[in-house]
Amino acid sequence: MRAPPRLYALVAAAVLSVVGTALVPTAAATASAASGPAVTAPAADASAEPLKPFRPNAAPPTLRASGNKLVDENGATRRLLGVNRSGGEFMCVQGRGIFDGPVDDAAVKAIADWKVNAVRIPLNEECWLGLSHIDTAYGGANYIAAVKALVARLEAHGITPIVELHWSHGRYTGGDSHCADTEYATCQKPMPDAQYTPAFWTSVAQTFKGDQAVVFDLFNEPFPDRATSDLTAAWTCWRDGGSCPGIDFQVAGMRTLLNAVRATGARNLVLIPGLAYAGDLRQWLTYKPDDPAGNLAAAWHTYNFNTCSSESCFNEQLAPVIAHVPFVAGEIGENTCSHGYADRVMAWLDAKGASYLGWTWNTWDCSSGPSLISDYNGTPTNYGVGLRDHLKGMQ
To answer: Which site among 135, 183, 249, 288 is 20 to 30 Å from 341 CA-CA?
Structure first.
């Protein structure tokens, strides 16, 4: 099923542009959105134990998959509950910096004060690898050092860092193309590219393999199902890569990326999203790659305008996955400048003992972002109030 694209945030003189379901500043225009039906909140599951949040003197736990739960080094059940911190995917390739807004200790403490225990950090593979068209001030060694510093600050506040590949290389001119005029990593692509993405994950895994508190999210929002109407071909492309129907470049499938991570010796928890901008997980269990470390979780993204936005759809499509593997909703949100949909999603995920992170901790417009905050001191937007109050209320 088609998950409609979400709006980009309006930043400086940039105009709005569609990039699937993750919202970040860029420079082109179009949009579509369709509200989903109301979701009835199920009863909370008293056995769902949240990962303890802001603990200044405690390092975040080493997480591993155990059945359909995440557990720490002591075997205690944990959940990832937090926010996305967008910027690392677009600022560098646009020549404007590395992060969008402050990421110093005060800024991280403001995040921690919401009782957040996990922060997802979107990245750009060309910036990490320091390709020649990236300003050296924002790419290569400088980019990697900035990401490592942010990871260290998060961990100093007891927060689990999730590093994630958001924008990647490869010219794509098929369905839902967001930057057909360039091969550069200036927008979302339907799948990772074989040319650079395995090298990106080899480098990232080598960088963080000594710190198993860091979680790896392999690719933001795959959409090979927009390039072909053959869902079997789309899922096969998702897993195996290669020459995929409707995609102009050679693809690196999830199996290749997972193998690249594990070949370094890294045993960190790895998140793998489904199709349709991470909104369709119906064949995830069938096609998931084998993991020699046995440390995988399914990743899902949801917004009020996605096709699967009702409790009945969640029960039909998601519950079977949640029954077998740990489940992380890497992005939840809505473009209403309120939090009714996010509230219902959190209630449903709470009842399942699953994890979730709100999009996004950036000061964009809450209807085009959607943004959780109006300043980096942590003042919530009307939308952000829902996540903040919910996380604080869980303590």
So the answer is: 288
Question: Which residue, 218, 217, 208, 303, is CA-closest to 252?
Answer: 218
d(CA 245, CA 361): 36
Residue 312: CB atoms within 10 A of its CB come to 11
φ, ψ of residue 166 in degrees (nearest 5): -105, -50
Are 106 and 112 within 8 A, CB to CB?
no
Q: Is the peptide bond between 360 and the residue preceding it cis, with omega within 30 degrees of 0?
A: yes
Closest CA to 178 of 281, 304, 24: 24
Calpha distance 210→206 (Å, rounded): 8
Residue-wise pLDDT tens digits, 21-79: 444 443 332 222 222 323 333 333 333 444 444 344 489 999 999 999 999 999 999 99
- Give the rounded distance of the alpha carbon of 77 from its chain centre: 22
Which tokens go with 50? Answer: 């949240």
The answer to whether 176 touches 190, Cβ cutoff 8 Å, is yes
**10 Å Cβ neighbour count for 294?**
10
Report how far Cα 105 is from the mean position of its chain's Cα atoms.
22
Residue 11 token pair? 């930043």
pLDDT single digits (tens) 234-274: 999 999 999 999 999 999 999 999 999 999 999 999 999 99
pTM of the entire structure? 0.89
- In this structure, what token pair is assigned to residue 69? 């739960």
Tokens of 279: 């909104």
What is the C-alpha to C-alpha distance for residues 371 and 23, in angstroms, rounded to an integer? 9
